[in-house]
Description:
This protein has helices spanning 4-17, 19-22, 92-108, 112-118, 148-167, 171-185, 200-203, 206-232, 254-257, 264-285, 294-310, 327-345; strands at residues 123-126, 133-138, 141-147.
Amino acid sequence: MYAPGVLRTLATVACLSLTALAGCPSPGTPPPQPPPAQPPQAPYAYPQQPPTYYPPPQQQPQQQPQQPQQPQQPQQPPPPFQRPLLPPLIGSAAMQQEVRTVLAELVQNLGASQKARVQGIPLVFDPGLEVNAFAGCEKGAPFLAGTEGFLLAADAIAQTKATDEMFGTQTYDAYCKLVIPQILRSEKASPGLPAGIIPQNVGGDPRRWSRARELFQDIVAFTFGHELAHHYLNHTGCANGQPPGPNPAVIGNLLNSLIPITNQPNEAAADSSGAINALDTGAARLPAYRYSERGGLLLLEFFARLEQAMGVNPLSPVVFLQSHPNPQLRIPILRDVIAAGWYRAHPQIAR
């Protein structure tokens, strides 16, 4: 592009060289007057605008490839508590120690006033084979006692019931049919489990031994909960928190030298308080094995078979003259009244 003054000079040169063709004026002719001078124009310039600055493109973070979303797994409940397998109780010393352990738990779960009455009462074991446990006083001091026969019978009941429960056998019936007639004929007959009652193919199963020990504990919890109740319910009249009773090392055959003071109303009251004590203690042991009314039902069922074999009619007026209520009358009271009432008061515990 050229400025206007330069265009006029070019036009004159063109006329001088192309006069004839272009009809330019001759040299003698005054030149035409130029148009009025225009003020000089500045060279064309683009309109000035404030510069526009664009921020540099931001570097986008590198996108990680998206992992496919895993479907949310429903929350699984925790696995149920698995009770450890218990070793078997072999021999009288092991059974006696088990009774002491259960008895300590029963005392611990009594109310404050009841515990104060019976804390520290000694437990002794009579060598007799009669199936019995009792509360008594010696020279005005309280004690609890169990016989060797009780230990053997509780072990036999527990072992046979555990076997039948797990393997569908009938070993408890076989035990009762063999042993009950023997112990009714002779006080020297042992209520222990005879050889051959438990099938050899299941006899050594550790699960069976563990279950048998649990049932043994259940029987002990009801039995000695009952005997403790005789003391703190003041049936013996000698348990008032005084020093412990006789030394087991110097006691002979307690059954031959002592006659427990009992009567049927006291026995019914001891059944109720003792069963509740066993149930409370069992609840306190959770999630370990829970003592329940089952031990009492097992023991009373065994006594019911004993009385039935003796020919005792539970509805005969004679049974109301005995020191203890008939087992066939005690069973429904324990199951349907005492235990049922406890479970209604403890709905969080499954029966």
